[in-house]
Amino acid sequence: MNTAYFYLTDEGGKLAHKLAAAHPGDIYNKENFKENLRAGFGKYDFLVCIMATGIVVRILAPLIVHKTSDPAVVVLDRKGNMPSAYFPVTLAVQMILPVKWRPFLVARL
């Protein structure tokens, strides 16, 4: 499963790099953020966005096609609290989030 991490703040960047060390993926910062996030929606299976939910929803909502073809999108705050899936999530990602991500997020990296 190919993964991309998107962040806007320095604190979010630290979390993105820690998560990517445990579950490898490409990391994108605020440079060309909107364009990269939109492009990532069509390129990756799993998007991890470390920022406010509203930002992600406004950018990606027009791109949603169908739950069977869209990537999973998980939004975290900059401290890694409260992971939430806001777009269609496949069964595989529903299984990966609790098993692979929760230990890292609960530890509050």
TrEMBL record:
Keywords: Membrane, Transmembrane, Transmembrane helix. It holds the Pfam family CbiG_N. The keyword Lipoprotein does not apply. The keyword Membrane applies. The chain crosses the membrane at residues 44-65, 85-101. Residues 37-81 form the Cobalamin synthesis G N-terminal domain. This is Cobalamin synthesis G N-terminal domain-containing protein. It comes from Anaerobutyricum hallii.
